[in-house]
Amino acid sequence: MPDVRLASPQGTWILLTTVLGSSMVLLDSTVVNVALPRIGRDLDADLADLQWTVNAYMVTLAGLILLGGALGDRFGRRKVFVVGVLWFASASLLCGVAPNAGVLIAARALQGIGGALLTPGSLALIQASFHPDDRGRAVGLWSGFGGIGAAVGPFLGGWLVDGPGWRWVFLINVPPAVLCALIAFRHVPESDSGEKAPGRFDVLGAVLGALALALVTYALIEAGDGSLVVAAAGVAGLVAAVAFVLVEKHRPHPMMPLDIFASRQFTAVNVVTLCVYAAFGGFFFLAALQLQVAVGWSALAAGTALLPTTALMLLLSARSGELADRIGPRVPLTVGPLLCAAGMLLMTRVGPGASYLTDVLPALLVLGLGMVTLVAPLTATVLAAVDTTRAGLASGVNNAAARAAGLVAVAALPLLVGMGPEAYREPAAFDEAFGRAMVLCAAVLVAGSVIAFATVRRPAPGCRRPECHTHGSVAVPPLEPETERGAGGGVSRETPPPAPRQPGT
């Protein structure tokens, strides 16, 4: 049984290590969007290149995150976590010195692999190291400090872009990564599951899943060309997706056991997740561009302007989770997307000459309140929809679904609203397309609200609640640290009794 106490020096080192590692990924999810216009100008990149700068990272991260957790269980969680941290740092360094858009996109894909290794490992180390009496508090602190990292991301990104330059958005990852790895080697105990996972890793499933995402993303981004190659890529992506389902259905130890979708509530909540995080992904990709391209603000001003959404998530998500515990998830998952839709419709007023106080801030406050209302109940409902022994798998699938939805939205939204390759260099055209994009995102959110109202029901009494009560990331739901004994490729850890809720966590 893990016996490290949170108040001990070793407990402090373990918490610091996991916060440093996970904060790099959370920071990266918010900081890069602010740098996109400057990256485009310096590397002479078109809009498709900027889409790939975001999506190359998301393809590998979403496609491999479940496999990353299983690797930690098999080979040691500290070892795989440190490999992920150093891999992420090396890829960040390559991003920072990239001479052209092609090298940057390739480096971003490598960065996503590092993120897939370290993201599940950060919580796995907490789960495997801390005494059960301290685990809930440790997870709360991890989530809270990680949320602070996500909150400062847009501000930090803007300051770096306007100051030393956009390359430092990536280079800044290197010092904390080196520090994180050194602390982990010196102060964090190695841990594994205590038994060997059955069967082989589902490498084929992971490859097919990532390939399907990559090919579909490519087809959507390049669809404006109308070439045979693009059409073939789209068809190949759909074939890879079907092959993924068939492989997972017949494999003895699949990465994503399809029988988990036998729960109608689990399936329904994941459909809601797809709607919600598709809208979020599209919004945060385009909003940072809109504020710089159409409104004419600096990168620092644009990054700072987006802080209210993450700040509200960080401050109020715990109370939102407690409210959902009392009244059930149906109302929050219905009302939350509607508030987010209203916030995005308010963003249609943001254009040339927009005022922050009267135009931008009200929209972001409404959007942030909607996020606060729905994110914690969404995670709790996903976990409650399956047996407690499969809670980690359920959370991992939901997390991967959210990331996949975001990357597809970034690929598809510019196509759907008529943004051409040079759109971000033409303020008037970009502003017009941005308004259409916000309406489309709002429609997707309304669809998610309707699905939630029609399908979500109150969980059974005594169902499991997430340990990540405070959540500051707007990119994806929080991963849970607890899961079943691995199914060949899923994130897999032991499941202890639920830790008591701690104030403020």
Structural commentary:
The protein has 2 domains: 9-189 and 255-455, Up-down Bundle (Growth Hormone, Chain: A); 203-254. The model is unreliable at 482-505 (pLDDT under 50). The radius of gyration is 21 Å and the shape is globular. α1 (9-42) packs antiparallel against α4 (101-129) and α10 (264-293) runs antiparallel to α14 (356-384). It has 505 residues and is an all-alpha fold. 72% of the residues lie in helices and 0% in strands. Its main location: membrane. Residues 462-505 are annotated as: Disordered. Residues 495-505 have a biased composition (Pro residues). Pfam families: MFS_1 (PF07690). The chain crosses the membrane at residues 12-36, 56-73, 80-99, 105-126, 138-160, 166-189, 201-221, 227-247, 268-289, 295-318, 330-348, 360-385, 397-417, 437-456.
CATH architecture title of the largest domain = Up-down Bundle
Strand-residue proportion: under 5%
| Overall outline | globular
Annotated CATH homologous superfamily of the largest domain: MFS general substrate transporter like domains
Secondary-structure element order, N to C: HHHHHHHHHHHHHHHH
Biggest beta sheet summary: none
How is the CATH topology of the largest domain named?
A: Growth Hormone, Chain: A
Report the structural category: mainly alpha
Subcellular location: Cell membrane
Protein name: DHA2 family efflux MFS transporter permease subunit
Membrane topology: Multi-pass membrane protein
Organism: Streptomyces prasinus
